[in-house]
Design a protein that fits this description.
Layout (H helix, E strand, L loop, with lengths): L19 H11 L5 E2 L14 H10 L13 H13 L10 E4 L1 H13 L5 E6 L4 H8 L3 E8 L5 E2 L1 H6 L5 E7 L11 H14 L2 E5 L23 E7 L12 E7 L5 H13 L5 H5 L1 H6 L2 H5 L6 H14 L4 E2 L8 E2 L2 E2 L1 H4 L4 H12 L1 E2 L1 E2 L11 E4 L4 H16 L5
Parallel strand pairs: 1-13, 3-4, 3-6, 6-7, 7-8
Antiparallel strand pairs: 2-9, 4-5, 8-9, 10-12, 11-15, 14-15
The chain binds pyridoxal-5'-phosphate (PLP).
The site of pyridoxal-5'-phosphate has 13 residues, from helix 4.
EC number: 2.6.1.2
GO molecular function: transaminase activity
Organism: Kineothrix sedimenti
Length: about 400
Amino acid sequence: MRMFEKSSKLDNVCYDIRGPVMDEANRMIAAGEKIVKLNIGNPAPFGFRAPDAVIKSMSENLTNTEGYSDSKGLISARKAIVEYCRSKNMPDVSVDDVYTGNGVSELITLCMQGLLNSGDEVLVPSPDYPLWTASITLAGGVAVHYICDEQNEWYPDIEDMKSKITEKTKAIVVINPNNPTGALYPKEILLQIVEMARQHGLILFADEIYDRLVMDGLEHIALASLAPDLLTVSFNGLSKSHLLAGYRCGWMCLCGDKSKAKGYIEGINLLSSMRLCSNVPAQSLIPTALENLEDAKNMLLPGGRIYEQREYIYNAIADIPGLSVVKPKAAFYMFPYMDIEKFHIVDDERFVLDFLKEKKILFTHGGGFHWAKPDHFRIVYLPCVDDLSIAAESLKDFLHDYKQS
Ligand code: PLP
């Protein structure tokens, strides 16, 4: 009998955030168990609601968004995105340089497919948001991971980045603010990355989907704003800042100097037209969403949900013997360190699975973010403080006598 196997293109492609541990959690849920989920950055199930004005705008547009749009997206949406880019000093972005997508996810895959030939290398952070590594691998490229340094606020280790550039390197991916660490990079670090790209003739891919989720009075600096003489492809969207991940609403902008990228842009245009266009009702709410940035800010201020949940979980985790964590400055993730000697941990996925089975709480193991040692895991702190406190208490109790052997 003829068997159908998955394509060999997928051999080394993995996306563990929705991998085997989540499958086990889904089995437990199907069997009637209640699981506290701290594993996915999806705000809506935790009671976060998209701003009313945004929902209203989409519902008002439903009857005139029944058809396909231009492959790059509605002009009204792209004009609003251009304005947003201007407000962040991102250079040389016109409506022609903006592409809407079914989430940033679709555009990340598209950009890698359009750029990479077999064996081409792209520098990607470790830990990373794993879609980057998966998309590079699927496109036939090689993701070369540069270290982000936990001892230095999880900022990229510039020396490590430099040491990993080869003749095959085509681009650098910068995820700022970062998932999974919650780090926000300062100008000095960004300038050094730009200089490296300049010296080696590299494209910059700036994943800035969390740029509006910054706390403690800090400001996000768009990478493109520091690199007018380079090509920066900047990614953003409304899944997180406007709490509507299910609408699949993202975009990317080609910023700065495009003169050396005519061929690549042709490739992007071709791939963009092959998927016809992104969800048009979701595109139609972009102008309203980008005029309503204040709503999102409240949850990041003292007294706001995300801020208070961060304060709670940061203190609770820092209090557990054998764990430590860098306080996140942005987004809604943290990436705690665990003392693997103390707990005899050799397999972080097993740790997360053991914890899930015993305490019915779901984290993601550090390996899922291409972190090499089994000594980290990611917490999504979107659940309310009551659920976070159940998670923290359970973790403390679980680790009290946990040993892997
Ligand atoms: N980039 C980062 C860093 C993310 O964390 C995510 C989602 O978690 C995405 C991109 C994809 O977002 P979306 O496809 O919903 O726009």
